[in-house]
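Protein in question quoted in full.
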Amino acid sequence: MVKERSGVEKIAPYQAAKSLESVKREYGLTEIIKLAGNENRLGCSLKVADLLKDRHSQLSYYPDPNCTELRETLSKLHQVEPEQLVFGNGSFELIALIAHAYLEAGEESIIPYPTFGWYLNVTLQMNAIPVLVPLTEFAIDLEAVTRSITDKTKVIWICNPNNPTGTILDKESLLSFVEKVPESILIVLDEAYIDFVEKEYFNTIDIIKTHENVILLRTFSKLYGLASFRIGYGIGSGSLIQRINKIRNPINVSYTAQQAAIVSLEDEDFKQRVLENNRKSLHLYYSELEGLGLKYIPSNGNFILFQAGMKGEEAEALFLKNGIIIRNGSEFGLDGFIRVSVGTYEENVKVLEILKKNIIETRNQEE
């Protein structure tokens, strides 16, 4: 048997959310509501469908390797130079590219935990050493992260807002942290959910204008609903981006993904509809969970983490029986909690009805 590269044997298979088809087959269901992958349940802009009809003649050509049109659009939107942008096949690829460009074997990668699992995977891919820093009260503890820095630290991964907890770092703490981190250490600010922050928040792009060791990651998978297109981008200093581009597959973003991203940026009505649904839905969860006496973490994403009033695997089974896929918090080391993606308002009502019915029945049995 051919032996794998050193470090690969340490990697556990990535635990993705269950697919619709696998659940349908396993439980014999025909209708499934998937609320486990933080996808956009309102779909995507209708302009994307129109685009695909009109551009079919372009599909036999290789896509623009430089994403020129999208690069120019985002450069103007974020007021950065075009060479400060790098594009990837979703955030998964961008995170892997960063690790492959900057992490050496034996160097340390600091990862607040629990968080997005791919940071750990790519660290192990490079035979680097993951340093897990526990959250404090479900939030990233930047002081603890700072204390974990050693002369071997090379990359710090900060998911902001954090997945799966939905917490966000305040401006003062984040800026102070960035100032304290040595310039020889790369700070990755993964902002996949930044568009859903309801309260006023500062423009984090200002950070990269004064700190060349910071890269921001953004995605079109969440707010814009383009998860199946696989497109995300990073923003950083020109020299930092240039190093990542050295190892990037030159044709990693499809033509349809590039064009879908451009038209999605233009559809303000769709974006506002998604954000309004997210806001109303989260406040519905807060109200109902408080009424049930269940702890929840106020969210800055398109998902919510809360106590289920039962073990995570029991909650997962309960919802699957009712045709709903949720995420068991045990996967994140948070047994008794579940993470539920924000669905349509009606889907969120259904989740809460199932939860409420089960809790009331359980409490009645205990009395």
